[in-house]
Give the backbone structure.
Amino acid sequence: MNPIIPDWPAPAAIRAACSTREGGISQGRFAGLNIGRSSGDDSDNVSENRRLLFAALKLPQTPDWIHQVHGSRVVRVPHEPAEPDADAAWTDRPGVVCAVQAADCLPVLFCDRDATVVAAAHAGWRGLSGGVLENTVAALPVPPSRLIAWLGPAIGPDAFEVGDDVRNAFVAVDADAAKNFRPTGTPGKHRADLFALARQRLAVAGVTQVHGGGICTYSDPARFYSFRRDGICGRMVATIWIAR
């Protein structure tokens, strides 16, 4: 397996990684390191993939999973009951692992300059337009100016075709978002840049240190799962925690 380690100026106590589909034991359309239990893959294969990945990343404990619903709710973890409906999780407890799954949607990791908090957000277009990143920033008990964000792999701007409804959802909140959509030549169709839209939202929320972005899941089938490309497929996971 070949996880992506964020290249960002995080404090030494911060640990973060994003899996790819490389490695693992899943077969067929899930071939590789599928982490997603709800993907339709064999549950034993997913369990073994998770075990292999967590051992390779040397996670201090199993991630505090959330049940992602393409919304904008943010929860603090550990959480009871487990796996709440949410699309972002944060913690200030060392050793607690925040995690989000994705297969085209944009995973965004956060930490602060003093390594006191971390967060992981799942930002598909619905969550992104609905404010999941702003809500994550607002939930963290540190000033936005102290935060550092990293944008993981997602469907790129040359592959992400959307309709007027998606464009309108962003422009209704911020007219300047229009610059992040390009016409395809087909009436009512546009190419959307999730990375640029996320950077724009984070800037408005006061987060100026934003790194990563630009790795396209759709265009690299050997390395990434992509729901838009393949339909039924596996999931990658982005993780972050404060080392004990």
Summary: Helices lie at 43-57, 125-130, 132-139, 164-171, 194-205, 227-230.
